[in-house]
Amino acid sequence: MDKKTEEFYVRLKEELANSTIWPSEYLYKFIMPSDIHSIAKVEAAFNNMGAVISTQQSKTGKFTSVSISVNMPNPQSVIDKYIEVSDIEGIISL
After folding, report:
1. What number of other Cβ atoms are within 10 A of residue 75's Cβ?
2. Distance between CA atoms of 26 and 66, rounded to whole angstroms?
3. 78 by DSSP, 3-state: which?
4. CA-to-CA distance for 47 and 3, rounded, in angstroms?
5. Domains and their CATH numbers in the chain
6. pLDDT of the chain along its 94 residues, tens only?
7. How many angstroms separate the Cα of 68 from the Cα of each of 1, 7, 23, 45, 46?
8. I want to staple 69 with a disulfide (CB 3.0 to 4.6 A). Which of 18, 22, 45, 52 is the partner?
C-alpha cells in the first residue's frame, strides 16, 4: 500500500471513530466493470455477515455500482474490508 493510501485510511479511521458509535451500520459503495466474476468476489467478501447488497448496471452496461449495507463492529473492520476488496481489478471505492 502506498503512503497516500495509508494516510487516507488513517484519516478515515479517525473520522469513523469520532463520528459514529460502534458497532454500527456502514454503507460501502463501489463502482466496477460489469464483470460477473469481479462482482461475485465483492459479494463473497461480505458473505455470512448479514449484508444487504444491491447492484445497478450503468446505462451502457459497462459498469456496475455495488452498494453494501452491513453492521460493522469498529472502524478498523471497515478499513479491513476496503483493503480486502481493493485488489479486485477495476474496483473503485466511493
Report:
1. 21
2. 14
3. helix
4. 30
5. 3-93 (3.30.70.260)
6. 889 999 999 999 999 999 999 999 999 999 999 999 999 999 999 999 999 999 999 999 999 999 999 999 999 999 999 999 999 999 999 9
7. 24, 24, 16, 11, 8
8. 52
